Amino acid sequence: MAATTTQIALAAWESLLRAQATIAREFEYTGDWGDVLPREYAVLHALSASDDGRRITDLMQDALLTQAGVSRLVARLEKRGYVERRDDPADARACRVALSAAGRETYRRLGQAHARQVREVMTRALGTQELETLRELTEALIAADPGSPAPSSPSSPSSPSTRAQRRRSA
Fold first, then answer.
1. Would you state the pLDDT for residue 151?
2. What is the enclosing helix (H) or strand (E) of 93?
3. For 3-33, how does the pLDDT look when each residue is reduced to its tens digit (9 = 90+)?
4. CA distances from 69 to 31, 32, 76, 107, 142 (A)
5. CA–CA distance, 72 with 65 (Å, rounded to integer)
6. Which residues contact 51 (CB under 8 A, 6 or more apart)?
């Protein structure tokens, strides 16, 4: 008897979760994170692309945490000197979080080691074409989320987010 679409979707979902959890656990236990937890590194990474810093609400998307969770995480990073809070010029009620000099150096050091670890773990079982396919598939899943923010860069006609949008409107 052929599997139903629901059964296939559930099996794919469980496989995706197990793969993510397995890789995350390996990163946590074998990575050289120093005093920075992998979740904290995710915030440093998100902040590394912005000299002006980012609002806590913007970081929630990258850290995959609630506002309270991100606020606590930022407070820990601030206490250790990795980030600093700045006034938001667009909104006097808000603040922006930015990397400090120590945070930028820590991010650079950890980022190089993390990139090597990601390459090692991901290429252990997947070749270049499979990695591209995996990226396209996961981007399509993200783009299909009705609550997902618009992509930060324009999509090409064949990008996963554009294809997902076309499927939804078809």
1. 52
2. strand 91-99
3. 899 999 999 999 999 999 999 888 888 877 8
4. 23, 23, 11, 20, 22
5. 10
6. 98
